[in-house]
Amino acid sequence: MFEARLLRGSILKKVLEAIKDLLTQATFDCDDSGIQLQAMDNSHVSLVSLQLRADGFDKYRCDRNISMGMNLNSVAKILKCAGDKDTVTMKAQDNADTVTFVFESPNQEKVSDYEMKLMNLDLEHLGIPETEYSCTIRMPSAEFARICRDLSQFGDSMVIACTKEGVKFSATGEIGSANIKLAQTASVDKEEEAVIIEMDEPVTLTFACQYLNYFTKATSLSPQVQLSMSADVPLVVEYRIQDIGHIRYYLAPKIED
Amino acid sequence: SKNQKGIVGFFNKQ
Lengths: 257, 14
Description:
heterodimer; A: 4 helices; B: mainly beta; 2 strands
């Protein structure tokens, strides 16, 4: 028996919004530590890694490890039926070929259940090595979303250049060029609003705007986003989900052959 | 010009 109950059901709604444009299907791997999902987009340029820890749920039970392959479009449709304040419970029997989502309104007056067929997905699983990154940038997630949106008007690619002074986002295209510089916040009153840079070596990398814009669909999950970069390795864009886990997006850089 | 790399080349298949 698998059962995961979350009073803050809107978290699951937001998680689906954060992955459904990038992934069409994915496997939710459940064990007694929680729920993990790892999947590449169709073009195999980016990778999504989601972790929801068991202790972040209001009730969590997983008697046997189960892997539930799901069509994410279908899951998104179902979760759209949940109210923002609803409690959401996912449950499945051992070896089941369906998963059930139960939504309860705060006053328990409305209870809905949606049963969905599971899929057998044979997806490649990648091992992500432990990496010490040359630069990590923490900044407000809404600011990052704004920058990605603004710069994608100028070109398909965005250059992210991080030095100890700050971080510069640039794009160039037919209509001209755009540069946005963010300085490290001098004094941090509210950490959520700060730009904080940790840098061992300066790094400049180029990324496809389209994917960065997909990643920013996670903005509502966290007030802050963390970007981690090293030369010639994938960028990590991480949104921490309060008290329960994180969603990380890995994006391969564009590099000279 | 720069080319888009795939993600698989950076990580190990399991």
